Here is the input.
Amino acid sequence: MKKILFYIGLTGLGFTASAQDTKKDYSKPEATEVWSPTPKIVAPGKENDAPPSDAIVLFSGKDQGNWVSSKDGAASQWELQNGVLVTEKGAGNIQTKQKFGDCQLHIEFMMYPGSDPGHLNEGNSGVYLQERYEVQIYDSHQDASKIYVNGQCGSLYKQAIPLVNSTNKRGEWNVYDIYYTAPQFRHNGTVEKPAYVTVVQNGVLIINHFEIQGTIQHAGIPRYEPHGKASVMLQEHGAKVGFRNIWIREL
Here is the structure.
């Protein structure tokens, strides 16, 4: 029994003990040292929020070359205004040409002053992971009572309420750093491992390793559908919202 418990403890150190390992002298520090594989070198961004060296830059302010219409795959109908990717009513959703699974996603967004399309639509947009799981964008600055709390800014829409409200006001930039683990499915389509998401907004942890319940549903119960890698999608929901400095790291 002692050997079994010791083996379990060793797996947490980054290696698995074999039958021969049980004969090692673990009183010596070198017995628990792991020398390979060596993590690859990734240089961090030289300025705040700059992409690290292994990031894929999805939007840098220059063009929309990485984005297409979610409706038909045609060119994006969003506007490029002073280095900002802007959506307004009727522009439709856009998504990345490239498809992703597990990832670290950085995205900055701003809700525009004076853009009030109506009740429950103030600054409304969203970031969809794999085209299915939405981190909500909404004008919730200091007031989440405008909308149900599992639909306020920073929520995983209709599933997870943000731990706190850290949304900046209109005319100011917000930052999402999203850490996402894609779901895994068995050959028969059932869920082997669910998806997980962690969201940091403006430097504040607002969703902590939440187990995603399934594809986002505006009405009804979330449910999973088998899928592979898929695009990052940005939502047009009738409000004027701008985006900049979008990059992603595949994990």
